[in-house]
Amino acid sequence: MTNPASYPIGTPGSPWGPAEVAAWLSHQSRQRSYETDVLAAVDRLRSRLDVEQYGRVDYAPDSYPLFAIRTRHWREELPCVLVTGGVHGYETSGVHGALRFADRHAADYEGKANLLIVPCVSPWAYERIHRWNAHAIDPNRSFRPDSPAQESAALMRLVEPLRDRVRVHIDLHETTDSDESEFRPALAARDGVVFEPGEIPDGFYLVGDTENPQPAFQQAVIAAVAAVTHIAPADANGEIIGSAVVAPGVINYPLKKLGLCAGITDATYTTTTEVYPDSPRATAEQCNEAQVAAVRAAIDFALAHEGRG
């Protein structure tokens, strides 16, 4: 386990400045291809769905186009569904689950809902299998006015015209062992605070909205995913990642207050999935399928309760 004194960058107790961020950046390297893994998959959807470029992320010398996938026959009277993945680029099944849903199931909702699918919000981080962007900023704490993260600002601009029309928003994430071994220690070092070890839950869970929890919706998603992979139990304190478990596999965060992606609309139904890819009881295939099952269950619940809630 990494501890704050041994983290290789910075001085314990002192927040990072530009020199430390530059040192951190020098250790990051491309490990996979956004073009091969994501853009090629998006291109294969163009014959069936509308694809639009909604922005570009620039970290010289690298530049990444950002793409969204839409229902081809968009109808103003239908409810809107927002699916986002790859806000944290290292959370692989979020990206590939969104793409798989678009490929295999978008047609199921033709004439029932307008779909807006953004499979990879953070391509620089996707390639480097990292949580942060190139400025050592977490996009998923940056969905707020005057966002310091290019990725977050671009997504907010895309969604703004639909903000009050989105019925359901499901944001696809993972919780990994590297959260505890690398990313949380790095966060503590960056912010100049003491790293306090936590516990990685073994299984799938959801993060609902403290201000709008929608428990029946969350449980419908959990029930669908339970047919694909196991649901994370509460720890000895009745918590998951330090938050009280309010129902099997469900915790709540104040989404908007924390600047989280799942809080960027006024949707009635919002949730963040958390798949655990490092479990000995789950495969990469199950992780992708769990994300797809969650998306489908979220949409199906919202459509079944249209006009209610």
Automatic annotation (TrEMBL):
One Pfam assignment: AstE_AspA_cat
InterPro entries for the chain: AstE_AspA_cat, Peptidase_M14
Cofactor(s) this protein cannot do without: Zn(2+)
Record keywords: Hydrolase, Metal-binding, Zinc
Transmembrane keyword on record: no
Peptidase M14 domain ranges (all copies): 30-309
Keyword field contains Electron transport: no
Similarity comment text for this entry: Belongs to the peptidase M14 family.
Protein name: M14 family metallocarboxypeptidase
Species this chain originates from: Frateuria flava
Organism placement in taxonomy: Bacteria, Pseudomonadati, Pseudomonadota, Gammaproteobacteria, Lysobacterales
